[in-house]
Design brief:
The protein has five helices and eight strands.
Length: 183
């Protein structure tokens, strides 16, 4: 198992397996249940008795709004995702981060700050930042009023998305449309 395995967690099927390269949406009954699932997967909350969460490596959370640092440009945010997990020169980090940002469709906003770009672009920048950490699992939080993850990630092919298991956690089944398999 190289991606994400969830077993015996509240409000979920008995077993959920998401391999690296797969996308899966899980629809939770309430916002509190969605938040709790995210916390369980990323390791912020203790598992209930009998529950299992296994990952094939690092896990990164992308909050609904993107989770960007407001004092950094889009490029600065993506580079930050790279430098916290890799010991490389700033120049190498910027080169890799520019490529990831381009794959995410952000090449025209790299010098802008989070408040200067659209909510959809902030979400994509959060994904680019997470991708630079080279996680095996990316957890995407969702919120109404924002562009859906399925519509954003489907805008252009991105080979880097295939390097992680991607889990979308939402409370609205319609927002899961277009994002891998929904459960």
């Amino acid at each position: 198992m190289d991606g994400l395995l969830l077993e015996q967690l509240p409000d979920l099927p008995e077993r959920v397996l998401i391999e690296v390269g797969e996308q899966r949406a899980l629809v939770m009954p309430t916002a509190a249940a969605a938040r709790r699932l995210a916390d369980l997967v990323i390791g912020l909350e203790d598992l209930p008795d009998g529950a299992v969460v296994k990952t094939g490596g690092a896990v990164r959370l992308v909050p609904a709004e993107g989770g960007l640092l407001p004092h950094l440009t889009v490029l600065g945010n993506v580079v930050h995702g790279h430098t916290v997990t890799h010991r490389v020169t700033r120049q190498a980090a910027e080169e890799h981060s520019r490529l990831t940002a381009e794959w995410c469709g952000l090449e025209d906003v790299l010098d802008r700050y989070p408040h200067e770009i659209t909510p959809g672009r902030r979400r994509l920048a959060g994904v680019a930042r997470a991708l630079r950490a080279e996680p095996r699992v990316i957890v995407l939080e969702d919120a109404g009023g924002l562009p859906t993850w399925g519509s954003l990630l489907g805008l252009r092919p991105n080979p880097e998305l295939g390097r992680a298991a991607m889990l979308l956690i939402t409370t609205d089944p319609e927002r899961a449309t277009g994002f891998g398999d929904a459960a």
